[in-house]
Amino acid sequence: MQAKIVRWSPAAPHAAVDALLHRPAFDAGAEQVAREVLDAIRAEGDAALVRYVKKFDGADIAPAQLRVTSEEIKASYEAVDLEFKQSATEAYKRIIHFSKSGMRKDWTIASPKGGVLGEQFTPLARVGCYIPGGAAPLASTALMTATLARVADVREVVACTPAGKDGKVNPYLLYTLDLAGATEIYKLGGVQAIGAMAFGTATIRKVQKIVGPGGPFVTAAKRLVYGHVDLDLVAGPSEIAILADETANPAAVAADLLSQAEHGTGHEKALLVTSSEMLAKAVQAELTKQTATLSRRVAIEKVIEHGLLLVIVEQLDAGMDLCNLFAPEHLEIMVREPRSWARKATSAGAVFLGPWTPEAAGDFVAGPSHVLPTGGMAAVFSGLTVDLFRRRTSIVSLTRADLQEMLPVIEAFGRVEQLDGHARSAKIRFAK
């Protein structure tokens, strides 16, 4: 199976490119299923949870067994190999360093007449982290979510991840969740996990906010519970776009495209945009060659057929325009002087510059969270940061002179908006 190569320009669009650009952020079929499951969880609580765990995950678990025990966590420390422990610790340190460096600090400024204006940031009390574990045990996602919550000083960090048919959670997931600081871990995946965290049951108390990526069903469920809880962003099946010129290494380009195609849902998207026909053809050959060597070949071939495209453009500027229209979760820029192009990338969840910055480094260890917007939503959403685990509160403290200076403005707006009570609440303070 060969990846498709097409030509594109703003003046000469291509149907295959249009289809990729207009991919839906949400799956209508998944949303219908998610709605049914969520309604059942709201009505039945734990009974619905265990029913859907058995139906979707194949695990026969009683409500009292949903929460991972301290003994299970302890056993994970014995099951996980030393090399991974060292690697997880290194990633954990880098994520903490990046998160602390980017935290917004409380600030104040003086008002014109001696008062104080500013903002303060306070952690949420209880958040939920969804950690995919079906198609692949995403231990890195445990670090990329729960760690940020703890850096933000969230005291209750709930994590949900599916158990296998034996009722056990992957030990690498348990190890990394404990390392990251999760305070409660539940054997729940898919829509049922989102419903439990959003609505609460007798076993699981509801959270204030849900974060974390997922497949089409989790993404649909998150949208449906918005308002019952806060959410991070639309983080569905993985995506990558690569802008490359003739200097790029075709083997590396192909490997990076495949790194996102292998996630396993079949809904992943991958796009190469290049000004070099020679590179496009070399990458096409490399994709075929490398796919044959990968363990997730069947899932990858589905993406190559339905969700991967190699696009040739006349000029790199037009290529960057196309990448911005695609608004990918991940954007790699593999051209001469890649840093000069970074500011032109206006619609990407994360940007990776140069030949030595594979997206996989961002997935596992670089520092920024890999929970990023998908489905074209990078045009309007940003990725997960530590500040999304905190509430911003504005602070206003005025002096008498401040209010006196503002009074004519308050009265003017009160008159126009027909809110005379507003105007009086300010004016009455000056009554003798």
Walk me through the topology.
Layout: E1 4-7, H1 15-21, H2 28-44, H3 46-57, H4 70-79, H5 82-102, E2 107-110, E3 116-123, E4 126-130, H6 139-151, E5 156-161, H7 171-180, E6 184-187, H8 190-199, E7 209-211, H9 216-225, E8 230-231, E9 239-244, H10 250-261, E10 269-274, H11 277-291, H12 297-306, E11 308-312, H13 316-326, E12 330-334, E13 350-353, H14 359-364, E14 390-397, H15 400-416, H16 420-427
Parallel strand pairs: 1-11, 4-5, 4-7, 5-6, 7-8, 9-10, 9-12, 10-11, 12-13
Antiparallel strand pairs: 2-3, 3-14
Summarize the structure.
This protein is α/β, with parallel strands linked by helices and 432 residues long.
Structure description:
44% of the residues lie in helices and 16% in strands. It has 16 helices and 14 strands. The protein has helices at 15-21, 28-44, 46-57, 70-79, 82-102, 139-151, 171-180, 190-199, 216-225, 250-261, 277-291, 297-306, 316-326, 359-364, 400-416, 420-427, and strands spanning 4-7, 107-110, 116-123, 126-130, 156-161, 184-187, 209-211, 230-231, 239-244, 269-274, 308-312, 330-334, 350-353, 390-397. It folds into three domains: 4-23 and 236-366, Nitrogenase molybdenum iron protein domain (Rossmann fold); 28-231, Rossmann fold (3-Layer(aba) Sandwich), CATH 3.40.50.1980; 399-430, no CATH class.
